[in-house]
Amino acid sequence: MSATVVPLPPNPSSETIDFLRRMASMVSGRNGEMLLRAAALIESLAQRAMSAERLYHEQQVESIRSTELREAAELASDAMVGQIAALRTQLAEVAAAAAAERAAFEVERGKLLGLMTHAESHIGKLTGELETLRASVDSFNETVVSVPIEVLRLARTQFDSLSSGFARNGDVVSQAMSEIGGFAIDQALTAKKADKA
Predict the structure, then answer these.
(1) What digits encode the pLDDT tens for the residues 21-71?
(2) How far is CA 110 from CA 96, 117, 122, 128, in A?
(3) pTM beyond 0.90
(4) Rounded to whole angstroms, how far apart are CA atoms 41 and 13?
């Protein structure tokens, strides 16, 4: 609650003080002392009133300044509250995007793990099949001999020659065996031509 301060009129107290001091010099005894005390008291009160008025004006200026600072602080606070709200919104959006990316990553990771498991299973199956084929080839290689094609053609010619010789001598059994051998070589050569085609 503010008080209204009325400025003192210029120098009325100094006239009054001068008057009281002149009167005290004319009056003797207790009355003179009382007049001097009254003059000193008025002078002291006038100084106190001027100090109080000066202090009031200083406090009024300080109050205005404080009000301006408080209003500026409130505006800054409102702006910071708005910025904090905007940052919270951004943080929520970033967190949501990160959660979505994390979920997508987990889905992709699951797919890749599934593919990897499937690939490992497939590799295991192919490895088993390869081992089976190797064992089959190894057992086949134990029963088969590689012969160049030219050697087979020579052998075929020899079987034809033997068959003709056995037929002239009348050895039907040897002739049949020679023809069977020639036929087996023909089949091997025919199979080789089919593999190349």
Answers:
(1) 888 888 888 988 898 898 899 889 989 999 999 999 999 999 999 999 999
(2) 21, 10, 18, 27
(3) no
(4) 11
